[in-house]
Amino acid sequence: MTTATQTTNKERVFIFDTTLRDGEQSPGATMTLEEKLQVAEALDDMGVDIIEAGFPIASVGDFEAVSEVARRSKNAVIAGLARAIPADIARAAEAVRHAKRGRIHTFVSTSPIHLAHQMKKSEEQVLEIISATVAQARNLIDDVEWSAMDATRTPIDYLARCVELAIKAGATTINLPDTVGYAVPEEHFAMFRSIIERVPNADRVIFSSHCHNDLGLAVANSLAAVRAGARQIECTVNGLGERAGNAALEEVVMALRTRADALPYETHIETTHLSRASKIVSAAANFPVQYNKAIVGKNAFAHESGIHQDGMLKNAETYEIMTPASVGIKETTLVMGKHSGRAAFKDKLRELGYALGDNAFQEAFVRFKDLADRKKHVYDADIVALVDDEAGSVDDRIKLVAMEVISKIGGVHHCDMTLSVDGAEVSSSYDGTGSVDAIFNAIKQAVGKDPNLVLYAVDGVTGGTDAQASAHVRLELNGRIASGNAAEPDTLVASARAYLNAVNRLMIERGAPAQGAMESAAG
């Protein structure tokens, strides 16, 4: 492995992906085991060096997910997170023991504000904890990463003492995270440079950067750390993560590739997989990617301005600093219609990064033909929405069977609805101040509980009056949040199905039976 002090013309930067751990901690982003395995496979295929698969001590489900990812990993190091607690470390070691290469990632707070209010420990007590727990981890596994939580708000002298002890105890990777997204690039660079220069044996370990995006500086800070000597960047696909998220893997990787003149470092990421990985994570976490998201957003390679279009027709480099193909995005938009057959549809799915089983493919094809009959043009974005929506609803235990909505200007809006709950039909009827309000009220009456509606939004998947409506709903019940998405040509049907998708996700998280599921969630 390349260390922080080795110099070559093109130095290696290791990519540590924490989508399945830090990313999943984003409220509403909880994934099922199958979804985690799908994400892990995509990361492994893409060339991610280290996959942090979860927090094994957190729950039986998390332990099982980390263990199964470890068993299935082909190339990546599989890491399990552990607090500086002996039981956590032992549990993490057990979870990654089946990996070809496993890692324990243990952490402890070091900043004064964390020590005083969260840890309630003195600096000396924390130093003792570091020595004991890192040594325990190293006795269990050869690859140990140690993190100083809230490093960027830790006095540099004390941080240096902590790092020195962690190295002495056996850590092979030292992570200095910007836990609350507080740093700016200049001071982040200075922190890494100072620690690397002053700590004994710093040349024997890899230094790592883990940045949060509270000030929108996560990627900039990560790159500053690399320039200072860090050779591992911790990031997530789509920047998924707590609060404002983490450094986005796709942005870090493409910045290093595109600006190799200013950043002479390389990764082993196959960048043509970036778009597919983004779609897989977005569907699994149920978090839509913003249209103007760098690298993988819907508009990242779209041009509407006449001046821009003119430049693009003459030479694409006038307004594009990388090609769509370099990140796995196709330029063609209008490709499918009602006369397309199964072979063409399967080829298009493969082009968009989907590999469906026979049953899932047949269901998606039927929905595609139905959409094509109602819609003049079917775009790539329509197919993505159709497949993702179908994938997210296959296992739903509460499904929409029938719905009739009556809307009156200046009058009461009414909804009659029939749902299938674990195969049994349940009917409800409710009024509302608007059509969507009546729909949501009817669903709440049927399931027997009133979750708080945190977010409701509707977007057109493509342009035109016949565009599919993509509805997004986020519900909260007793501190737990779940998101739901659905795409339909009918906005009201899309809204109903998105709300039900969120309800079903609340059920999955809780593991409650469908009958009375929302009442159980309240307990």
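Above is the first protein from milestone M3; the second protein from the same milestone is given next.
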Amino acid sequence: MTVRATGESITFAALASHSCAYAHGFRRIGVEPGMRTVLMVRPGIDFLPLAFALFRIGAVPVLIDPGMSRSNLLGCVSQVRPAAFVGIPLAHLVRLVFRRYFRTVRINVTIGCKFLWGGYSLDDLFVDNDSGNPTAATTAQDLAAIIFTTGSTGLPKGVMYTHGMFDAQRRILQEIFDVTADDIDMPGFALFALFTLAMGMPVVIPEMNPTRPADVAPENIISTVNNSKVTFSFGSPALWNTVSAHCLKGGIRLPGLRRVIMAGAPVAAYLHERLLRHILPEGADTYTPYGATECLPVTMNRGSKILAGAAAMTAAGRGVCVGLPVPGVRLQIMRISDGIVPWLQDAEILPPGEVGEIIVQGPNVSRRYFDLPEQTALHKIYETDDRVNGPFWHRIGDVGYLDDAGQLWFCGRSVHRVETGDESLYTVCCEAIFNNHTNVFRSALVGAGNERYRQIPVIIIEPQPDHFPVTDEGRDRFNQELLELGQASDVTRSIRHFLFNKSFPVDIRHNAKIFREQLAIWATEKVRH
């Protein structure tokens, strides 16, 4: 059964029936196998059968974060050139106002009131008849969906998902978490419901704004978890930071929740500690899958294991331990390069302990981006001349290292590393040192200056609430304390510039990835003056 916190519900049988009915409807209005179809529907009872209906007929749903900037959203639509558009009224209003970006769209479906723009309604799409099975004959290599990245380090890219990729992801997740039909999922990120439903797990959709997980009303999440007997939940660390702080303050426990999966950004040790020692029941655990839109998951770690040892190394600037590779996935670390590395033989593979660029191979890894050959060339490394079917590696764009046990330690994004001319500084490693200060909520390492390989390292601090320095004396004292922290570690000894920012710009999907490019521009102006 799939349930929304508002009380609406649909059984697995009804979900299958609705999916089949919508599939017939899509076929009737002209949606064909391979047709790119933008799906802009709020998470809920309508989204799930519509998505499965498009998969069923072999159409290609295009999934774009609705909360991304208008220019990025329109750029995504223009890039993918959809033939069909399924959306809520607000999405159709955007389509009409910016119609030149939607000029390839010839089939429109409105979920809600149709107003004056014509097209089809959800009722028009529902064809409940016995006209046969509308399922298309697809192969593992056929395109199943186009899912856009958040654009946290540049323009969003359309990742081409095949049916084989989706199936590999489902199998990996089922093996890792060993879920059964007795589990109940509460997805803080709507797309994850597609996987848990495919694993036979009932889903409860919480009342929240999916574009602002950090601002979730914790009471809604707590009541949904406890009233619906939720055992499993995937969400941003920003969501669980808000919920856990509320639980800690009120002495609230979540006695039935046994698995909390957090992804999208490094998870602070205090968040694992809050959940495992104060909120979740004995025997429960937190999980931190590591990966990217192009390849998820790549590795997996547990909060209990992190608190047992890795957290202390993270606090000392050694990076974040994201665990061992998941079944079927291979990892290597290569010497960092800012250019194209076309062949594996051109990559210098590094031994354990050396920081480099993370590359990954596996059945859940996307082979290319949609209509972005330059980005595909930059992010893929091939083993043979066969770039269509041959083995390849994906450059995640992150830096890290493998330890002697084969565990991956994440050190940050490659484009975010600061090159001073004398050394390379990595964001996650350096920031951890300053995050040890009790009045620091989070920090961001950026490079000031316009010369890529001669940057001035700057740490920007977002203080804890009520600890922003408002006087010169307070700022000087905070600066001195940060400087002493930095000087005590070999990782950060060269950092001598500190700035304070009340609220970092973050990504829409997880509210956790810091837009360091924006902060670097701001820091360059500050340091210059």
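Note on the second protein: The domain at 2-138 is CATH 3.40.50.980 (Rossmann fold).
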